[in-house]
Amino acid sequence: MGLQLNGAANWCLYGKNGSKIMKQESRSMIIRAVTSFEDNNVTATSVKMNPIDEGKIKLGGSDLEITRLGVGAWSWGDTSYWNNFEWDDRKLKAAKAAFDTSLDNGITFIDTAEVYGSRFSLGAINSETLLGRFIKERKEKDPKMDVAVATKFAALPWRLGRESVVKALKDSLSRLELSSVELYQLHWPGIWGNEGYIDGLGDAVEKGLVKAVGVSNYSEKRLRDAYQQLKKRGIPLASNQVNYSLIYRNPEENGVKATCDELGITLIAYSPIGQGSLTGKYSPENPPSGPRGRIYTREYLTQLQPLVNKIKEIGQNYDKTPTQVVLNWLIAQENVVPIPGAKNGEQAAEFAGALGWRLRGEEIEELRSLAKELKPIVGFPVEKL
């Protein structure tokens, strides 16, 4: 997901109902199915899949299994990018509903980070703290609940060496009130000390503090280097979390997506619905508020309208919302797990509706073709390091 840092450093990244049951289906089957549908000119309605065909997949080369779709918790407790600079009990209850609804709909992969939210800013709460609280409350009602937690290490300039990674992870575990997490990621490459950070990830695995490790906002070269460094210790690099959506396809253009596919690294896509710009909610007359309004301007939303209209049109063929269409588009790219941010239960239920069906190949390419006509949005600069 995106990030914010409060205090000494303050960086901001701009970058109908859900199916109830998800069961397993192999990744390769998706491509074969889409190709078959396209070759045989099957109608759009016949491409729909039963939700029971969806299920968990292995994260990269690790043993960790996660759902094909996750939920991002960037907005939980945040007051500097989301929530119109305020946090209150109503927003807290909405975030809790997003968590519970996600699990109710079979989406159990939740992504957070130590720099999401704050314990000190305008009454906000750290996202890890909130997620830990939600898990604890849910387990009191359902002790056998299944949730896969992913969090991240902030590569701050003053954090040096492998020990800093393990220490930060232990701090995150304390806030989450967990003894281990399923996935620990480097949030972005450091200005220096990256080899030490990678060693720290390996140490975290060997200490039993985490089941799988990954990186975020890593370029092709950094991705290959991290993969090889961990491979020497027999530890797979499970994932690379990057900004990826119809309107931000840099991973396709800079070699990151191809490298993930080659090395067996799962690409986790943050901001998969363009921070709401692809949902049909916004228009030139109704742009998003807050910092997002500086990225998704009236001018940009005007240029975006033909793509949004096509997304709506395609969605009508499947009785799906624009949000569900663009998430399905990403899933159809294969080896991609989108993690849209859910601020409330209604959004979480809608996300689940992206599962259990597939867009046709010609629709996938038509959307990509329209998206290519748009001026690219600004991404997180460290992707180019």
From TrEMBL:
Keywords: NADP, Oxidoreductase
Ranges of residues in domain NADP-dependent oxidoreductase: 68-371
InterPro entries listed in its UniProt record: AKR, Aldo-Keto_reductase, Aldo/ket_reductase_CS, NAD(P)_OxRdtase_dom_sf, NADP_OxRdtase_dom
GO CC, alphabetical: cytoplasm
Gene Ontology molecular-function annotations: oxidoreductase activity
PANTHER family cross-referenced by the UniProt entry: AFLATOXIN B1 ALDEHYDE REDUCTASE, OS07G0143000 PROTEIN
Record-given protein name: NADP-dependent oxidoreductase domain-containing protein
UniProt source species: Chenopodium quinoa
Gene expressing this chain: LOC110701996
